[in-house]
Specification:
Layout lengths: L1 H22 L3 E9 L2 E4 L5 E3 L5 E3 L3 E4 L4 E6 L3 E5 L4 E5 L2 E13 L6 E4 L4 E4 L2 E8 L4 E15 L2 E9 L2 E5 L12 E2 L2 H8 L54 E2 L3 E3 L6 E3 L4 E2 L29 H4 L4 H13 L5 H12 L1
Parallel strand pairs: 9-10
Antiparallel strand pairs: 1-4, 1-6, 2-3, 2-5, 5-8, 6-7, 7-9, 8-9, 9-12, 10-11, 11-13, 12-13, 13-14, 13-15, 15-16, 17-20, 18-19
């Protein structure tokens, strides 16, 4: 009888403790957005599907199913994004990542917050980072997007690394005795790949289109036109003249329509504000390597200026007179004519 009374008393106190504990359960986060199947496991072991605006109590666990995703915020200005296959447990001012990947954006600068894995610990205030834990290899990876965080092994919290924006570190139990690796820089493409599993990218990571510079005196006017339409450029106020020409230079190009042939004929082109430049005539240049040659004139009368031997000259004359000037038949004919 005494034993039954003792068991009843113990059961009463246990039920009272559970009831008080449930009444004093304190919410630590709230759901902002849910996609797909996401479940909540309460401290009592109950499971329910989460929906928008649901509250998450302390010591509760959030489990994201396949093709699911959820975004939550706590009461310390921190936002948590979870991808498919992620398992996260909430505490007061800290969370425990049991599996998967979470992206945390914190605007808190007064209270220190923390994230814990099976072998890693991340202390953070204001900033953004992505934490990943792989159960198969027991590796923890922390990639910082903005700000900075402190990463250490949960068994040796004194050995910390400060990981700044654009760098990441890995805690591998098989390497370096499980201590965090020296932070390594990451490229923007790798960072976007890491964030590709989430639904929204940070505003700071969105690439802005560079501003297009235009001429100050020209306004951009979009004129609608139809396919196959001929557009004639006219001399309007938007055209800018040449700065080197006084009064500005302008010209018109226009074509007339020939009704007989059905085609376009060229119209005269008129120029305003421009003067015809005079073309300078350039004389051909003489080669510098050529000089005038001194030519010796041939004497007109060789016989009078040259001293020829008198004896040779006389023999030459006799020899010349002795030779017939004409053929023999012609000489005989001439001789006969002279005899008459």
């Amino acid at each position: 009888m005494k034993t039954s009374h003792t068991k009843l008393k113990n059961s009463f106190f246990l039920a009272l403790f559970l009831m008080v504990n449930s009444l004093w359960a304190r919410p630590v986060a709230q759901v902002i957005n849910v996609q797909g199947q996401v479940f909540l496991v309460t401290p009592e072991g109950k499971t329910k599907a989460l929906k928008k605006a649901d509250h998450i109590d302390e010591n509760s666990e959030v489990m994201v199913g396949e093709d699911g995703g959820i975004t939550m915020n706590d009461y310390y200005d921190a936002v948590y994004h979870l991808t498919q296959g992620t398992h996260l447990k909430f505490f007061d001012k800290s969370v425990q990542l049991k599996k998967g990947k979470t992206w945390i954006q914190s605007l808190n600068s007064r209270h220190p917050l923390g994230l814990e894995t099976a072998n890693g610990l991340v202390d953070y205030w204001k900033g953004e980072f992505i934490a990943t834990f792989d159960q198969a290899s027991s590796k923890t990876q922390v990639l910082v997007v903005n700000g900075e965080v402190e990463v250490s092994n949960n068994l040796d919290k004194n050995m910390k690394y400060t990981v700044t924006a654009g760098t990441f570190t890995v805690i591998d139990p098989q390497n370096e005795n499980g201590l965090p690796r020296n932070p390594t820089k990451v490229g923007i493409s790798s960072l976007n790949t890491a964030l590709a599993e989430f639904k929204v990218l940070p505003q700071k990571l969105m690439k802005t289109k560079p501003a297009h510079r235009q001429v100050a005196s020209v306004r951009e006017v979009l004129v609608p036109f139809k396919k196959g339409e001929i557009i004639f450029m006219t001399n309007g106020k938007l055209n800018r003249g040449l700065a080197s020409v006084a009064g500005g230079a302008s010209w018109k190009f226009k074509k007339k329509f020939d009704k007989k042939t059905g085609g376009l004929i060229n119209a005269p082109i008129r120029f305003f504000g421009m003067k015809k430049a005079s073309v300078a005539i350039i004389a051909p240049r003489k080669p510098a390597s050529l000089r005038a040659l001194n030519m010796v004139a041939v004497p007109k009368k060789v016989a009078t200026k040259l001293n020829i031997d008198a004896e040779f000259s006389e023999s030459l004359r006799i020899k010349k007179d002795s030779q017939p000037k004409h053929p023999k038949e012609l000489e005989n004919l001439i001789h006969d004519l002279k005899s008459y």
